[in-house]
């Protein structure tokens, strides 16, 4: 199985590293516009193989899309990240043009591929990739919910002082500081609702920390995060390539689901070899429905800014 990752920066290279290390694909192509950069990252990752025990071939190329031909999955991480104090939405001016041209270029060589969009503002970039390529909606997947849910589970684990892998939880809605919706009501510690162990105040704090999870890291690091984002993309790619049919919140095109139309936004999906195989209809309560509608309204406003590229 072959995966191409466009953008060999922090997120793209980390994703390639996790995919190789875990043997998720037999070949990974890293592509970047910076001369020699992807080649260097690929070589560095390949030189881990004998000491960590993987056999994945990692190839780096400078803007040569012919080397990406026949990819089963293409991950788009190309574009600029935010700096402290910025929102993801402020990246649209530069990233929209990049995501549009990259998604068109990859399809020339991999017409049957599934595209995973990572570049921010991710929900709007996913919508742009879908509209620009005209691909069927099951083949365009925005990655944000897998990461936000990982952060949610991390903060729950810290608040509960329990192992993170005993905790289940999902974040839906937009991938923005104010648009994501951590589903605290449905989160559990080995099947037991976390509300049995945490006060409303503590749960509210977990939700608030989750929502600004990316901003917190951006402030600490001076640029946005990459370890958990790269691992979250690899987790999603694994579910596609190995047809795991995991339920993962992803930004996908809605046609009536969750009361929304003509928008890409995070909802729980079954992810397998066909990409988005099902949108799972979780019964939300009135408060959650209201938050989802507000989140969708904000994403829709952002999408209006695409009128000059679409
Ligand atoms: N959806 C999510 O959950 C997350 C999204 N992100 C987003 O991912 C994007 C990448 O973040 P980082 O890797 O930290 O940035 P980075 O700056 O480390 O890497 C971006 C790379 O894209 C390359 N690039 C730019 N234009 C290109 C083009 N036309 N073709 C090929 N490559 C091109 C640059 O040369 C650079 O190497 C940002 O937009 C960031 O906001 C980051 C983390 C999580
Ligand atoms: O915070 C950012 O800008 C990058 C991102 O989407 C994340 O880490 O969640």
Automatic annotation (TrEMBL):
Substrate binds at residues 82, 88, 120, 151. One of its GO terms (molecular function) is L-malate dehydrogenase (NAD+) activity. It comes from Imtechella halotolerans K1. Keywords: NAD, Oxidoreductase, Tricarboxylic acid cycle. Catalyzes the reversible oxidation of malate to oxaloacetate. PANTHER family: L-2-HYDROXYCARBOXYLATE DEHYDROGENASE (NAD(P)(+)), L-LACTATE DEHYDROGENASE. Residues 1-142 form the Lactate/malate dehydrogenase N-terminal domain. The keyword Oxidoreductase applies. Its EC number is 1.1.1.37. The lineage of its organism: Bacteria, Pseudomonadati, Bacteroidota, Flavobacteriia, Flavobacteriales. NAD(+) binds at residues 7-12, 32, 95, 118-120. GO terms for biological process: lactate metabolic process; tricarboxylic acid cycle. HAMAP family: Malate_dehydrog_3. It catalyses: (S)-malate + NAD(+) = oxaloacetate + NADH + H(+). Belongs to the LDH/MDH superfamily. MDH type 3 family. Residues 147-300 form the Lactate/malate dehydrogenase C-terminal domain. It comes from the Bacteria. This is Malate dehydrogenase. The active site is at residue 175.
């Amino acid at each position: 199985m072959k995966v191409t990752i466009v953008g060999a920066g922090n997120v793209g290279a980390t994703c390639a590293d996790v995919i190789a290390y875990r043997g998720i694909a037999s070949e990974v192509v890293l592509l970047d516009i910076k001369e020699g950069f992807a080649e260097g990252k690929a070589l560095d990752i390949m030189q881990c193989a004998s000491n960590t025990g993987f056999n994945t071939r990692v190839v780096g190329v400078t803007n040569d899309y012919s080397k990406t031909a026949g990819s089963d999955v293409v991950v788009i991480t190309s574009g600029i990240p935010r700096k402290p104090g910025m929102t993801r939405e402020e990246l649209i001016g530069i990233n929209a043009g990049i995501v549009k041209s990259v998604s068109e270029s990859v399809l020339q060589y991999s017409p049957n591929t599934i595209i995973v969009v990572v570049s921010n503002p991710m929900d709007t970039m996913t919508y742009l990739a879908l509209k620009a390529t005209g691909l069927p909606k099951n083949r365009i997947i925005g990655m944000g919910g897998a990461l936000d849910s990982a952060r949610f589970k991390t903060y729950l684990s810290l608040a509960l002082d329990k192992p993170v892998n005993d905790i289940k939880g999902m974040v839906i809605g937009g991938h923005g500081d104010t648009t994501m919706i951590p589903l605290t009501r449905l989160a559990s510690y080995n099947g037991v609702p976390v509300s049995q162990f945490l006060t409303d105040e503590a749960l509210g704090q977990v939700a608030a920390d989750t929502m600004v999870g990316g901003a917190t890291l951006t402030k600490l690091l001076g640029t946005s995060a990459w370890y958990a984002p790269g691992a979250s993309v690899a987790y999603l790619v694994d579910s596609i390539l190995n047809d795991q049919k995991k339920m993962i919140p992803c930004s996908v095109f809605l046609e009536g689901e969750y009361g929304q139309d003509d928008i890409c936004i995070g909802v729980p999906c079954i992810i397998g070899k066909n990409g988005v195989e099902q949108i799972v209809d979780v019964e939300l309560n009135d408060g959650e429905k209201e938050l989802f509608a507000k989140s969708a309204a904000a994403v829709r406003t952002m999408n209006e800014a695409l009128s000059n590229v679409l």
